[in-house]
Amino acid sequence: MSPHHVPMSPDDINQMAAAWAARSDRGLTAAEEIALEAWLNADRRHAGAYLRMNAVMVSGEVAAAGAGPAPLRLPNRRQGLLAGAGLLAASVAAASVFAAFRQPKRFNTAKGQKQVVTLEDGSVVTLNTATRLEISFSRDRRLVRLEDGEALFDVAKDETRPFIVRAADTDVRAVGTSFTVSRLAGSPIEVLVREGVVEVKRPRIATNAPMRVAANTRAVIAEASATPLIVAKVEPDQISRELAWQQGRLVFAGESLSAAVAQFARYSDTQIVVTDADLAGRGVAGVFDASDPVGFAQAVALSLNAHAEIGRDQVRISR
Fold first, then answer.
1. How large is the angle between the packed helices 30-42 and 10-26, nearest 10 degrees?
2. Of 101, 126, 160, which residue sits at a domain end?
């Protein structure tokens, strides 16, 4: 404490701790996290009071399961003094309490599922099918580790904390923009920028300088390779088609049947088998339900003058 700081009374500390506990229960903004950390470090008594108030809230929730809601009773001065033993470790508790807010959060979707997650900074992450990622925020950056799958990131602007998506050895850095990153087995990492600009960097490759990727552009990065990024322009209509998975749809505009079948395999365990090589190379077009491979196979077979044989977990398309 500074020499001009006037210590709070135990009752005042308890009231402030209760207020912070209530705020924490509903979720803190980045600014509130910084303010809480400052308050916890200002006086060794603050952390102990904060821990007690969180415990009171938890015990109150448990009691509410068997009885009606009860008002929160703040510890009085005597109760605060009786907690002296806990206050001996307050400085350690302050660090551990705040560290809890920085613990990474994990999200995942099963095959055929999608999930929309709103982060504490206002950014929105939309996970596509079979996706796993981990999110951790700190004072100077917002980090997402994409382990598998694909996600769309609509990033809230915060120039003091860049938003970084890490996929294998590739970092995609943004401030405020909208883009997707995909990391699929057997395929290169892809970054598709819908709005704004991102910076793609491979920290493990010393000779690889960061590359800025603008809106309506795709960057393709071969994982675990020193090959330079491949960048290509993408028409807005194509971006809209590729992001139709947000509405549970797959949209094709001339892609080969084999490519369309590969897309459906990401969303369903029902296998589509094309028995004829010529059929597999034919183009398909239309809007389809990503969760209905059977309906897709039947529609395609009809349009290509082929047959769709429906089995238990498989659909065969043949002449």
1. 150
2. 101
